[in-house]
Structures are given as structure tokens and as C-alpha cells.
Amino acid sequence: MLALDNVKVLDLSQIMAGPYCTMVLSDMGAEVTKIESFPNGDNSRGMSPIVNGQSYCFAMINRNKKSVALNLKSEAGIEVFRKLAIESDIIVENFRPGVTKKLGIDYDSMKRLNPGVIYSSISGFGQTGPYKNKGGLDIIAQGVSGLMSMTGEPDGRPAKVGVAINDIAAGATALYAILGAYIHKLKTGEGQYIDTSLVDAGLAWTIWESGAYFGSGEVPTQNGTRHRRSAPYQAYRTKDGYITVGTFNSRLWERFCYHVVQRPDWLNNDLYADKQARLTNVDILEREIEDIFMQEKTNYWIDKLDQAGVPGGPVNTYDQALSDPQILEREMVVEMEHPILGKINSLGIPTKLSKTPLSIRDPAPWLGQHSTERLLEIGLTDEQINRLYEDKILFNEHPSKAKTN
Amino acid sequence: MNISSLEGIRIIDLTRILSGPYCTMTLADFGAEVIKVEAPSGDDTRNWGPPFVGTESSYFLSVNRNKKSIVIDLKKKEGKDILLKLVEGADVVVENFRPGTLQRLGIGYNILKETNPQIILSSISGFGQDGPYASKPGYDVIAQGMGGLTYVTGEPNQAPVKAGFSIADIGTGMWAVIGILNAIVARTMTGKGQWVDCSLIDTMISWQTYLAGNFFGSGENPKPQGGAHPNIVPYQLFDSSDGYFNIAVGNEKLWKRFCHTLNESELIDHPKYAKNSDRVQNRKQLVGYLQTIFKSKTAKEWVDIFEKAGIPCGPVLNFDEIYTDQHVLAREQLIEMEHPSAGKIKMTGIPIKLSDTPGSVKTPPPLLGQHTKEILKKINNLNEDQIVNLEKSGVIKCSPLTSDLAN
Lengths: 405, 407
Known about the structure:
The structure holds two protein chains of two kinds.
Chain A: E1 8-11, H1 17-27, E2 31-36, E3 50-51, E4 54-55, H2 56-60, E5 65-70, H3 75-86, E6 90-93, H4 99-103, H5 107-113, E7 118-123, H6 138-144, H7 165-188, E8 192-197, H8 198-203, H9 207-216, E9 233-237, E10 242-246, H10 250-260, H11 275-280, H12 282-293, H13 298-308, E11 312-314, H14 318-321, H15 325-329, E12 333-338, E13 342-347, E14 351-353, H16 371-377, H17 382-390, E15 394-395
Parallel strand pairs in A: 1-2, 1-6, 2-5, 6-7, 7-8
Antiparallel strand pairs in A: 3-4, 5-15, 9-10, 10-11, 12-13
Helix pairs in contact in A: 1-7, 10-13
Chain B: E1 10-13, H1 19-29, E2 33-38, E3 52-53, E4 56-57, H2 58-62, E5 67-72, H3 77-88, E6 92-95, H4 101-104, H5 109-115, E7 120-125, H6 140-146, H7 167-190, E8 195-199, H8 200-206, H9 209-218, E9 235-239, E10 244-248, H10 252-261, H11 276-281, H12 283-294, H13 299-308, E11 313-315, H14 319-322, H15 326-330, E12 334-339, E13 343-348, E14 352-354, H16 372-378, H17 384-392, E15 396-397, H18 402-406
Parallel strand pairs in B: 1-2, 1-6, 2-5, 6-7, 7-8
Antiparallel strand pairs in B: 3-4, 5-15, 9-10, 10-11, 12-13
Helix pairs in contact in B: 1-7, 7-8
């Protein structure tokens, strides 16, 4: 049993923030119908690497979903959309504010058709406030929400977090709000409107840095891999790569000195007398530690750290991370068969539930794979559906494979 | 008037530091009653200062609003009994000890389930409850490193850097929220609770998304890009005459508009830059050329120019600028409230707006043991004498200010 069995989601979103949100809803068992424009569909279908004409990137976050390719700029297309909306529990969109209203499929219009619907909008800056109409992509939001100004080498250029973190933050934030709203709907039958922005969601994750700013006015700046309150707590260079070490109390610091770097004399060195002193002298400490770490390879030091009970680990490249025995045993890499791409890997589920675990059932759909199937389900006849195809209201990228799945 | 979606849900919160407290704060914002169970020494972060505001550290204040604090020594049998009594009437238990600790304390999942078959246990750890590294300690910087995030963050050909905030901790707290809400939905059908297991390392892996797609599809390890995008050009950070700004030219229509705006129309159909794939290939040359142009004006001037042209762009702000920004304030991302010892404190707002069951911040982060007495009286039905005796024997602790404040 899946927690969202029988829940229907109508998904107007594309690229990242919205699709990430609806992917997890589909992992939870919801039937997600992805509405796409054609002939190109979701913008991320064009992102390389392209294998057999299908984007691997698109496949990563659109598993378990159904694709209906529908022309929303036509009255007949909107009519089909309304029919799908009437039987949906949840609608997700990530257009710029105002677009759904222009199309006549905004929350107020949908609520009239389906009073219990939960309608979730994701945008760069939110549905309100002076910047609501600005275009807000991940990198813009990383800059505006302060994440870039606190990421990178000290005194270097601001760097962005290496994954699309504001997109993901917004998708995950929308997701928990949708689940909260669904719990409310189970009790009352009522739907509601949910407004998430990339900037708000990213800012909300800077919790400690914001706390320090509110407490003392401290403006966080780039800090490499260092911790703002503890040392040594960062990555160090080894003979063949980098390793992280996390000693956040004096007990771990002592163990580190005795058993890892074998420099008990550091415990009597005034430069490192306490956490504050180690933070003040973090550059000297880094040089001293790296001088030692550079003499052996990463694996050697990991064993040392493990034996000493000091937290630490390698700085993995993707091939290392994705073949690590822990990652594999936790089923974080899942292999599946895609009808066009062939055998593909998908990332696994990071929250494990004992009774209603999330599940990966189907690969990402090709554009319009379920156009016919979903329209039949909402009561259209074969004849009506064929007319929609002829009138260029409906589309299926691979009609010859249509009946499969 | 406002209803909360988690009204009536009671959470017993055994977590400390960041990942767990972020999870339970989010649940508290949405109306759950969160009872934070602290050891007599309190959540470690209560001492993580400076900065301190009044008696409290900024770290603690930033992630514990809307909660109640009860102090129980779980290493004492009477303490364990008090806890199990609380679990009887609760919906969710959240913990972020190292795997195995709960069992050692005699309050493992099986015991909790026997006590209350409807209980949902959510465990947060560095590496998860199983697998070869389960018993290893896992902190934010370690998970960022092992999950591949550190490797893809920072300038090309330089030392890797981590995301400048505790993204693995917070992200895992978020996955725990999602798992718990899923379990609450499932319980309406099954009447039973379950165990939710999240780890910092799994969270980091789950967010590789497109980069993992690049890797699976091409076999190539993604590399750090500084402030740039691996697949789109120009989509990155640029330097101006006085600081940095971002620009995102995500499609060919925007590319044309971008070139016209810069009075560089000859770039539009230039064989080296006409299509995004050309621009990715000749990234270095193009970015170098653009960079010289951008040095001629201030960041604000460029942002104004590109905004007028309808090209996605934005400044790179620091906290002074963010928390005085008219949009951030209009979105209520800065909240102020009164704290009994710290006075007026500021905190981040609620990052999601719901029309009917919005989140809300009702009470400030609690003092250590502020609600011990109140909870023991109300939920455990203990009387004043019993509470005094428990406090004398060190099983519990009440804040000197205690429930006078709470009532």
C-alpha cells in the first residue's frame, strides 16, 4: 500500500522545482498526469545527455508520471484540461505569476469546478511582493537569497551551490505544504491555495547563519569548507584527494591529536588551546594538518579516523559516491528499464518508511505517452480523441508505441 | 480563525542540534504540539555562542520556536517511565541519535510500538539505520563531501568548497517532515504507525538529480563550475565595476534580446555563439568577452538594464541587504517576537504560504525546562509533590522561570 494511492495530481510544471515536487508525490503513490506543450514538451527534455532521442536529465525527475501533450492555447485544449482538473486532488504549476490566470486555469477558476482542489504554485519570487513578476531561475534565487554570498573560497568569487538548490528547496517546501493541506483535506474536504517561492525556500534554509545575523549582525561570507563555529571541521587535502574531519568538541579534538595526526603536543599549544583559539588560528592549523595528511592517501586517513572514533569521510566524486557500498545498500541507485533509453539508473528514495515506503514503479514517459489513455479514462471517446490529434490539440511523440504500458 | 493542518498532532522531540530541530520546528509551525525533551544539560546548541542573546544562543533561538521544553534524564529509570507515558498519548517521536542509541536507552522502536501502536518514529542519522556505515558518526560537512556536493561546488580547478550553510542537516530534516506527513496520511487508512528512516548522506545523493543524469548518461564526473551552469551559457555570475550579479540566458529568444540589449547584435548569428551548444563549446571566449563589457557599469546598473529588457537577472545579496529588502519584508520572511530573557528577537519567516491553513509563529524558543511542570501535570497527571521529588532526585529539571511564564 502507498500512502497516496488513489490521489490524482495534475502537473503543469516543468524543468525542476515543480517536477521534483510531483516526482515525490508520484513516489508516494499519487497518479501524476503531466501536461506538456508540444512538439518540444517540458524544456528539460532538451537537456543533454540525449540517448536515443530522450534526455537522461528529464528521466531523472519524471519517473512514475504520465504524460499528456495538450495545446493549452486552444479552447478545446483548455476544455480537456478542465475535465482533468475536475477529478484531480492536487494541481501543481510553476509558471510566472499571472500566466495561469491568462490561460483561465488559475486557482479561482479551478476552485469553481472543484472546490476541494489543492492548488500549488511555485515561482521565483512568490505571488506577492514587489518582485513577483521578475523571472526567478535557480541561479538568480541563489544570488538573491544569500546562498552565493556565503559559498566559495574565503575572499574569492561567490560560488553557487553545485546543484540547483533553490529549485529543490522550493519543490520540497511545496511538497510538505501539499501533504499538510492534504491532511487538512482528509479531515474537512477543503482544498486551498499554496504559494512557494525559490527565494523564500532558499532563505529559510540559512537557519543558523540567519540566527547569527539576527543575534549579532554577523554577515556570513564565503568560508570554503570550513565551519563558522568549530575547528578543525572542514576538508583537507591528502596525497590523492580530500578528506573531511568534524571535531566539534574537545573530546574529539583530543582523540584527533592523539590517534589521527599523532601530535599530542598540539594539546599544549596556546594557538589551539580551545575552540575559539583554533578558529582564530584556523589557517595555521589547516597548514599543519595538511602537511601531515598530504603524506598518505585518503583511505589511510579514513581508517585512522574510524579507529579513533573521530567523524570524517572522503570528498567523493560522483562515480565514487554512486558506487559506494553504503549508498548501494541504502538503495540510493535504482536500475530500471526505459522503453526508449533502455536500462537507466535513477536516484533512490531518501526517506525510508517501514509500512508505506515510497516506490519507483515506472520510467519517465515520452512526450504524450499517455495522451490517449488518460483522455479515455475521463470519458472521451476514441472518435473525440482522434479529432483532437487531427486538430493539433493533442500529441503523442511515438504513436506507434502507443498501446504499450 | 486560522486552522492548522497539524492541529491535535503531538510530537515528542528527542532531537538536538539542527537536522531534527529543523524538522520539528516545521511541524510546530504548522500547528503540531512539539514537546522537546532535553537532557539536564540541554540541547548542545544552547551553549553554542557567541552570539548570545540574553541567556540564549542565536543558534538555539533560530530553530526551536513554537516548542515546549521538558527536561528528563533518560538514563534514569524514572526518566524513561516518564517518557513512555508521554509516548502513550503522542502521535510522533523524532530522534537524531546515532543508530542503536535508542535501543540502548531501552526506548527502541519495538518498545515505542508496544507502548503505542499508532506511534510514528522518525529517525535521522548520518548514514541511516542500516548499511556498512550505519554506526559511523555523520555530520553535515562529511555528508556534503561523501554525497558528491562538495566536489561539484566551488571554482573550476581549485579546492572544492561546501555549500556555505548546513544543507545536509536541513535537507534531511525536511525529508523527515515529508516522511512523517506521509506516515500520518497512511495512518488514517491503516490505524497504525511506522518507522521513518532518513540520513544525511541519502539526502545529498537524492539532490544530485540532473548532475546524476549527466553522470549516468555520459559516465563523466561533473566538475565544479563556480558560478556557472554546466549546460547553459551564459547562465552565471559576472563581475561588474563594483560587485557581482547573475544573469540567466536560458533560450535562443533571450540570447537575441541579450545581444541587442548590449548593442552586440553581431554576436547573435556569430558561428561560434549562435546556438546554446556553440556557446557551451566556446564558453571561455564568450564569457571573457562579456566580462570585459560588464566591468564598465555597476551591478545595479546592469540588473536594471537587463530587467527592463526582460532578461532574468539578479544581484548577489548579503544578509544586510536581504533582511532590509522590500520584497523579503513584503513576503514576511523576517519575523520579530518577544522572548522572556532575550527581549525582542528576530527570526526567519515561514517559507510557504497556505491560503487556509497557513503556518504561524506563536511562541518563542523555550527556556530549558520551561514547560516541565506544565507537561508533567497535564499529561502525566503528576502532582506538585511528585514533581518536586523527581527534581530532587535529578530525574527532571524545571526552569526557574518555569510555567508561570507558560500559563
